[in-house]
């Protein structure tokens, strides 16, 4: 996990509520960051969203059980399908940054 994380469940200095328990594997580099701000601050390149049609890409990591989810699995549920951890619904506000 890259970026300024604050705990083992992928929370970072930017987003650290009890529901902020995912990390995104960025399409531009294939590396997991807790959020777009972490990527912006620590990567040596600009971020790129996953292109349309990348629904089968494993691009989201549940910070509670460390299961990798596909884009479709993540976007289709507010919870981890493996451990039922709830995800922050406000992350949808940033969806276009991560997923095209």
From TrEMBL:
Superkingdom of the source species: Bacteria
Domain CHY-type: from-to ranges: 5-85
One Pfam family this chain carries? zf-CHY
Keywords from the UniProt entry: Metal-binding, Zinc, Zinc-finger
Question: What is this protein identified as?
Answer: CHY-type Zn-finger protein
Cite the source lineage: Bacteria, Bacillati, Actinomycetota, Actinomycetes, Micrococcales
């Amino acid at each position: 996990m890259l970026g300024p994380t604050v705990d083992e469940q992928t929370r970072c200095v930017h987003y650290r509520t009890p529901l902020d328990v995912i990390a995104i594997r960025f399409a531009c580099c294939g590396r997991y960051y807790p959020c777009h701000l972490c990527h912006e601050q620590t990567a040596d390149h600009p971020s790129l969203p996953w292109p349309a049609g990348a629904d089968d890409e494993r691009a989201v990591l549940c910070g509670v059980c460390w299961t990798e989810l596909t884009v479709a699995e993540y976007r289709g549920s507010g919870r981890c399908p493996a451990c039922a951890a709830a995800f922050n619904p406000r992350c949808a506000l940033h969806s276009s940054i991560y997923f095209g």
